[in-house]
Amino acid sequence: MAKYFRRSSPAREIREPMYLPEAAGQTFKIGDLVYLASGKITVCAHDANFGAPFGFAGANATGTTDTILPVFPIVQGDVFEGYISGTLAASMFAGNANCSFALTTDAAAGGSWIIDTATHDHHVANIIGPLDPIGTVNGRVYFVFPTPQGSVAA
User: Fold this and answer.
1) How many whole angstroms from its chain centre is CA 78?
2) What is the Cβ-side half-sphere exposure of residue 95, based on CA atoms within 13 angstroms?
3) Residue 130 placed within a domain
4) Tell me: the pLDDT tens digits for 109-127?
5) Which end of the chain has the least Cβ crowding within 10 Å, N or C?
């Protein structure tokens, strides 16, 4: 479902997309992380200064305002796998004061989304455990979106 993050939690069921209108001037691609602005699908900014994400685009943007497109919403409790910036440390996991981070895009990795472990000001992604050993540079982790926009229930 996701282009940059992989859903790790087992699927409880096959999820149907929601169909929502596209905001003006959009260029998102299928799988991009999106949020809703005034009820319309909007691509998430590279620095995750959008607050909580809503889901993942189910189709490429058309560039035409109000075109109805599919979006796969993030369901509260879904666990994802992703990469971090920096070195994996035990202090990054849930239960610790510093487990909540911003998201950003990594230009060196072709614009892929990563968890920005140097930024705690947006609180978009909570790391809940390591996938790679502690000490791994740019390691993989399990994370959740603590409060997805719209808080879609499972």
Assistant:
1) 11
2) 4
3) yes
4) 666 778 888 776 666 788 8
5) C
